[in-house]
Each structure stands twice: as C-alpha cells, then as structure tokens.
C-alpha cells in the first residue's frame, strides 16, 4: 500500500465548521465548482480535494483504491490542522468517507453522502460491467453512463461537456482502478449500527444511487442517518443542481433547528 500523502486541494471560506469534499468517479474537485458561489464561507471552511489520478493530481502515482483516498484525505486534514471536521463524499467519494470514519472515528463530525456508493459497493455484472470497464478510454461509454444515471434528461451539449471534462481530468489508469475498488469492495458489516451523524442527498432522477438504493443500504446500517431528495437532479447533483445541493449541504451541517 502506498503511504498516504497530502494531495492537491484548495480551501474556500474561513468559518469554524470545517468540511472536506471528495469528488465522484468522472471528474476531480472542479466538479464542485458550480456550487462554490452558493456556499457560506463565513460559517464554513471547505477543503476541495483531488484524488490521485484526477485534476491537479492526475500524474500522481498510487494504488487508486478507496483506502488510499481515505488515507490521503486524512493527510490533507492533518496538513490543515483540522482535528475534527465533516466529510462530504459524492458517489465513490461516499465510500471513501466511510473508511475515513472507520479509521478516525473521533475526528469525523458527520458524513454527507451525495448519491454515495454504500459500504457494500455496487456490484456490476454482464453488460453493465462491460459498459463501465469500457469507459476507461471510450468517451461514448462515459456519455452513456452519465446519460442513464441522470435519467436521460440532458441534451447532447451538456452530456458532451461532462464527458470532455471527465476525459481531461482523469487518467485512464486511475479511472479503471477506482472502478474495481468502489464497485467490488464490501465492508458493510463494519459500519452496521455505527452511530455517526449521516446526511444523505439523492437525486430524484438517479436510477442507481437514488432514494430506494440508499434506504436499502445506508439507512439500514446507520441508525442516525437522514435522507433528502433533490427533485431536479440525477446522480450528478453538483453539476445538475448546484444551488439546491449547496443549500441542502448547509442545512445538514447546521443540524436540527
């Protein structure tokens, strides 16, 4: 296993409440760019991280596993001097966030999962597996996945922009290796009954990690989990509904009235 290291990141805001954000499989930390203008930097400090093989870390070598993402993210928190903080994990980032919780339970104040992959992984078989594995170097496969996981609601221009960003921000090697890790890792027995505060945000048009899937996994295993559904989003809420997502995130961080 590669030793954890401080990977590229940037911080927005200067608030006392701290949040570290982990991106999805298709793009690096720039996937959160749309929601930045809607975040409260006076109340919160947000650290946006590029996983190895993405964005500014596209040439960083590694094993490209969820354990590695979790270790690197904790190294970033150490570098920032953050003793405690919340973690927002989008899609595969949601799996890594849970490993951070298991590795450093006293440091994680809460997890916010945005269409998050559960601790059981996401088994893909047959044609679905072929579609996902072929997405390593095939823009058409990436477009088909993005289209299907957002409910077929977006036009070619939007889809093509997502694909172009994805191809430019991820190394094929990392992209392919992370797929094996987030789809085929299963540690759900380790999180069953975990008392952590968990806030789940699903897109109403997400057929993969929508409300039903989260109810069958996350909500069964985390007794203090809550779920909110965004009506105008599929799997890629940061890009599809950035203002609504930012509002939901800060509502979750603020906790009960």
TrEMBL record:
Residues 19-242 form the AB hydrolase-1 domain. GO terms for molecular function: hydrolase activity. InterPro entries: AB_hydrolase_1, AB_hydrolase_fold, AB_hydrolase_sf. Keywords: Hydrolase. It comes from the Bacteria. This is Alpha/beta fold hydrolase. It comes from Streptomyces aureoversilis.
């Amino acid at each position: 296993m590669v030793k954890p290291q401080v990977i590229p990141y940037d911080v927005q805001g200067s608030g006392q409440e701290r949040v570290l954000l982990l991106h999805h499989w298709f793009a690096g930390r720039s996937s959160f760019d749309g929601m930045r203008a809607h975040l409260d930097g006076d109340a919160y400090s947000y650290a946006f991280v590029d996983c190895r093989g993405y964005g500014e870390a596209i040439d960083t070598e590694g094993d490209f596993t969820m354990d590695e993402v979790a270790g690197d993210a904790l190294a970033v928190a150490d570098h920032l001097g953050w003793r405690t903080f919340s973690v927002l994990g989008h899609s595969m980032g949601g799996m890594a966030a849970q490993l951070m919780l298991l590795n450093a339970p006293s440091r994680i104040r809460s997890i916010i999962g945005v269409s998050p992959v559960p601790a059981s992984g996401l088994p893909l078989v047959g044609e679905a597996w072929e579609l996902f594995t072929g997405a390593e170097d095939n823009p058409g496969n990436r477009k088909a996945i993005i289209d299907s996981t957002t409910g077929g609601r977006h036009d070619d221009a939007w889809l093509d922009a997502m694909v172009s960003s994805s191809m430019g921000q991820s190394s094929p090697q990392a992209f392919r290796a992370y797929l094996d890790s987030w789809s085929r890792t299963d540690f759900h027995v380790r999180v069953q009954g975990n008392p952590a505060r968990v806030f789940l945000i699903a897109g109403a048009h997400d057929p993969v990690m929508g409300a039903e899937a989260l109810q069958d996994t996350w909500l069964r295993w985390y007794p203090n989990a809550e779920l909110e559904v965004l009506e105008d989003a599929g799997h890629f809420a940061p890009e599809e509904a950035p203002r609504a997502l930012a509002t939901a995130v800060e509502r979750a961080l603020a906790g009960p009235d």
